[in-house]
Specification:
single chain, alpha/beta, Arc Repressor Mutant, subunit A, two-stranded parallel ribbon, 38% helix
């Protein structure tokens, strides 16, 4: 039987995992952009660590995957955090929260306040970019089209510190 989104959000027994960054890692480019070099320690976070950061974002504020990765890396006292696994857990959290709402429950994860890098909306959220845009606009954020993608205007002004 297929797992629910909420089941997929459960912590993984092998995580968190601290590794030395190598050029062949799927997240190498993104982690390198965040300042990690080959040989630096990086962490593969657990879903609960990602969700905990997402839950801290209050109304009127935003966070991007980059800020989430930096917070988690600091918690583990390492140079970086794998943005690939973090991104997967962000998407899983969004879908789990939406699934819970359909079941009449709440996980209290304001996932729509979590953006991709550079303030772009996440097409993998429930309902895609359009639903993400509506939720952000409902909270007063201005969303602008950038080709086929959407971005929160002046998103940097709203980033949670």
């Amino acid at each position: 039987m297929k797992k629910t989104w909420q089941e997929k959000l459960a912590d993984k027994a092998s995580f968190p995992k601290v590794l030395k960054l190598e050029k062949g890692f799927p997240c190498y480019n993104a982690v390198h952009k965040m300042g990690a070099e080959v040989g630096d320690e990086i962490v593969l976070a657990n879903p609960s660590e990602v969700v905990e950061v997402m839950k801290q974002v209050p109304k009127g504020k935003l966070i991007t995957i980059v800020e989430i990765c930096k917070k988690i890396a600091a918690q583990h006292n390492v140079k970086g955090c794998c943005s690939l696994t973090t991104g997967i857990f962000i998407m899983t959290a969004a879908n789990a929260a939406s699934e819970a709402i359909r079941e009449g429950k709440s996980l209290n994860i304001p996932y729509w306040r979590t953006l991709k890098s550079e303030g772009f909306l996440n097409e993998k959220y429930p309902g895609g970019q359009e639903a993400h845009r509506r939720l952000l606009e409902k909270e007063g954020f201005r969303v602008i089209a950038r080709g086929k993608k959407y971005q929160v205007a002046d998103y940097e002004e709203f980033l949670m510190q």
